[in-house]
Structure prediction request, 255 residues.
Amino acid sequence: MHSDSFDLSLYFRRIGYSGPAAADTATLHALMRHQLFAIPFENLDVQAGKIVSMEPDDIANKLLRQRRGGYCYELNGLFTMALEALGIAWRFIAARPMFYPARRPKTHMAVVAEVEGRQWLCDLGFGSYGIRAPLALDELDTDIIQDFDTFRLSRDAHGDYLLQAKVEGSWANQYGFDLSPQEWIDFAPANFLNSTHPDAVFVQKLLVIQHQPEGRFILLGNTLKSITADRVEKQRLEDEEVVHVLEQRFALSAR
Prediction:
């Protein structure tokens, strides 16, 4: 995706990356990891009653210059700006979240990148049990360990892909998808739904997630959760403490 406001060197500084700017597998993996650990998943705009902008320039300015985070359309949109600048082939795909009790539409955006003859699922914006590095689409029915999380890709009888994560020792469906390429504008209705619908989790509660190599911090409403390989800690926060945690833990301002 192209934005006149996107600057590759600024992107590298924002995510703390100083490696090669090459169109290869190693760079693809490094960029996804660096962005995941540097830019949080967050819905502050939705909580402020705003509809998240789908303008590429707005996304580049928000995440790079204002040093904010975002949700899937923004985080994955920014990632494709970097891929575009590096000459790595990519496409948007639409995914159906599958952890809800009822069947949901394909409201999630992910990215498939193609480099050095292989296709890779990349996703910076699925929240808690999102992948932590690209997954090869030709590596099916295999446990893939990424840091302290384990994932698996499989295909159903119709050829659609299913992403699963191991949650508390059992496989949990995360989302299903096919490889049909999507245009940026195709996600505008889903973005509007996630920004405005009263049943959308982003409308209902504040949600901020910061991934780290050793774990993740999740702020859901007034509850802060810290997750590592061997420990889960929860803390109930007062309203004024939420503002402090946003600033100190997530480097975000809610003022």
Observations:
- Residues 8-250 form a domain with the Arylamine N-acetyltransferase fold fold (CATH 3.30.2140.20).
- The two ends are 31 Å apart (CA to CA).
- The helical segments are 8-15, 25-38, 44-47, 56-65, 72-86, 188-196, 201-204, 239-248.
